[in-house]
Structure formats: C-alpha cells, structure tokens
Amino acid sequence: xxxxxxxxxxxxxxxxxxxxxxxxxxxxxxxxxxxxxxxxxxxxxxxxxxxxxxxxxxxxxxxxxxxxxxxxxxxxxxxxxxxxxxxxxxxxxxxxxxxxxxxxxxxxxxxxxxxxxxxxxxxxxxxxxxxxxxxxxxxxxxxxxxxxxxxxxxxxxxxxxxxxxxxxxxxxxxxxxxxxxxxxxxxxxxxxxxxxxxxxxxxxxxxxxxxxxxxxxxxxxxxxxxxxxxxxxxxxxxxxxxxxxxxxxxxxxxxxxxxxxxxxxxxxxxxxxxxxxxxxxxxxxxxxxxxxxxxxxxxxxxxxxxxxxxxxxxxxxxxxxxxxxxxxxxxxxxxxxxxxxxxxxxxxxxxxxxxxxxxxxxxxxxxxxxxxxxxxxxxxxxxxxxxxxxxxxxxxxxxxxxxxxxxxxxxxxxxxxxxxxxxxxxxxxxxxxxxxxxxxxxxxxxxxxxxxxxxxxxxxxxxxxxxxxxxxxxxxxxxxxxxxxxxxxxxxxxxxxxxxxxxxxxxxxxxxxxxxxxxxxx
Length: 522
Hints:
This protein has 522 residues and is of the alpha+beta class. It contains 8 helices and 23 strands. The chain has a 7-stranded mixed beta sheet with strand order 12-13-15-17-19-18-20. A 6-stranded mixed beta sheet has the order 11-10-9-21-22-23, covered by helices on one side. Strands 3, 4, 6, 7 and 8 form a 5-stranded antiparallel beta sheet that branches. Helix 2 (172-179) packs parallel to helix 4, helix 3 (218-229) packs parallel to helix 5 (268-282) and helix 6 runs parallel beside helix 7.
C-alpha cells in the first residue's frame, strides 16, 4: 500500500483556474473583489477551502464557506449581512471540460455564509472534481468520488484520523495522508479544541496559538473552526478525498456527557448548541445532520457497494455521565452498573438492526473512544479510563454481544480519542482474553494532539503483557491507512517522528491484516 505522492495532489488547486466560467456575480466589493493578474484576491472569500463528504452511489455533499476575513472576532468572516449566491460545478475531469452537474446555492449570514450542496444523479464508483464561484473569485478545485453501485465489491482505501489540537503541532500527518489519495477519510472526532490560547500545553510546548479564549458563544466556535481550516495541510486533505465525520468531546467541551459539562459551568446547553451549530456549518454533512439546538444526528450509515458499510456512532450525546470523577481510576465498581449506557437504547438497537441486516463483507463501526478493556496500571491491580467504554462495562457487553450475534462477517471498530495508536482483538468477555473473538479494534493516534509523541519500547512491552488482546502500541502522531478487498482488510499504522516542525516523512510502523470472515488480527 506504500504510495508516492501523486502529481494530482499538487495540481488540484491549480485546476480551479482552468477554463472559462460564466456564473453569477453576487458578492459585493465589500466582501470580495475580482482577482487580478498579480495574484489571488486579498479579499478572497475561499480562504477556508472546499470539502466533500458522505458519498452515495449517485452523489455526495459539497461544502465551502465564504470568509475573506476568517478570524474576524464576530464570527462573520468579513462577509456582509445578506445572502450571497454561490455557483458550483461538478466535472468528470480536472480541467472541467465535461461538466456533470452544476447549479447555485445560497450562502446565508445566519449560517456563517456556509454552503452545503447535496449532489445526486451522478454515476457510481467514479472520480469527480468540483469547485465554487462567488463574484469574481473561483475556489480551489476538489477531488471526490461516488460510492460503488450496490452489489459492487471492488477494492478501496480509507484513512482513519482523529484529534488535531492546532496549538500542539503542524498538520503534516494530514498532508501525508492526502498524498496517499484515500478513497474515503473517516474523522473520528476532536476536529477542533475548545481551549483558550496557551491553556492546553503539549509536553514539548506549543508551536501555534489559538485565536481567542475558551469557546463560549457561536461566534467563538465559528472563529475556531475557521482558524483550523486556514491550515493548508488540512485544506489539502479535504480537497483530495470525501470525508465521513463524527464529533467527540472537544468540538464542545472536554469530557462532556449528554447534558452534563465536563466541568461545572453555567449555560452549558447554550454552549453545546453553539458547538453543534458551528460543527454542522463547517463540515460536509447532509441536511439530515443539521443541528437543532442541543440535538444533532451524526449516527448514520454509509455504504460502499457490497464490500463495506460504515456505521458511524455518537458516543457523547446519549451517554450517562462519567463515573468516579472521570479520568483514570482504580476500583470504581460503579462502572459495572447494568443501567449505565454509552450509546443509549435507541442507538444500540439501530446499530444492532444495521449489523443484522448487513450483507457487506466489512462492517466498519466508526466511533470515538476505546472499546476494548485497557489496563494502564503495570503490575498488580488495574487502572481504567472512565471516559472510554471501560467506564460503561455493561453497555460494552451489549455492544460485544451485538457484534457476536449479528452474524456480520468481519466487524472492524475504528476508534479515535486516545492520542496513541493501537490494535487489539475484541473478545466477548472483556475480562477473559480466551473468550470468543468477535471483532478487531484499530485505534488511530492523534494528528497533532500532545505534540511530537515518543517511543517507549519498555513501557509498550509492559502494556502488551498487561493486556493480552492488545497487539500494538505507538505513541507517535499519524493516521491509519487501510485497504479493503473481498478477501482481506489490511491496515497500516502510519507514523511521523515529529510534528513540532514541518516536513516530517511518514513511515509504516505496523501492518495488520484481517482475513474476510475472521475476527482477529494477523
């Protein structure tokens, strides 16, 4: 699966300038002026790039936001307080000579002048290119693709990523991932962080600084999303693949649970509603996921022909509050309470029904926090993470039983949150490594959170010995790149030696294969 960076990765942005386009010119001089031959417009409205997501067999979602002043403190991005018409095109070629679909969308001030276009009527299983125009400005051109038709089972690649604290390091891992041109990117949460500048510090210090203080208002969340999206490596990663996204906690506040904040603060409901609204505004999500106050539906299914189905979960909005004061805890028998839930009864039933009815070769369960039991105390006794599924032992039992009873051929759980890459087998009884294996769990490390990371072979060996189902651990930054075929799924853990400065290469630190129909890593 090793790949050299494609020349296309470096040409996509240039493709936006190719060809003549006669499209509406609706952005006033106060918000965008025509580009000149001397370079890009200093009031360019496309400072945050473009993105696509949630592919289907006949289409996908296209996204952009008009923001000539992305860090304007009022969260309006330097745009006027009125609607702006934005033209869009989808083409079969990089130079936009064969236009497949085109239209206009309205960017409204109430939605931060974001645009979500749900394109349909396209051919299944093929590559497309897209772009936007507002006034005299043309966006970069993005590459995306439709999912294969039902019944199709050709190979495809996907990446799994999570946890990108902007202050802790550069987004080189996003760039290295984009260079491998995955067919789909799965983002498992913590796309942005809510802390004020300099509050959350990496071990070796921060290399960048958040704009503004701790996020409280809708304007705050909008500015933070905009700041993250000004990063060129992140823009390239969106430019080059469609994404499937789910939030975890930092998109609102660290370790929140349902209606309970991670720390006692007033007006949490208003803050959560602001976080949800800004998240939807800045992600390539369908209208079915639009935020409505403190409700936002992110659990959904995305099919990739007959080869794979992604089951995307929400492990924040329905969970009981973390027990025993949260964090790493020894003892804490309260975590075993049969009534404690992570997914909630409705979502667990939805997942169970989806797995039972699935005919896909690979059922990919994308969710936020570690499922497998993980003892972090080296030696006698145990120390478990109450924010992960270890703090919800009974609901984990229900999840594992669902995987076992559903009859699905090859369940693979994709997990974020931990800032440490790992791979493990999942057993029906989390306390018994010898019990029946029901699936595997692949945990992506962070893109940048906690800084450069480190190598600690002695500790890792001790963790592997302490946790018999655990097969691999790596504390460096990076992502997972996987390739699925009807015969097997191969996952490479791609890691970078540093992210405190730019330019690090990515290497494969471990590779695991799951044969079709099996429930264990090889």
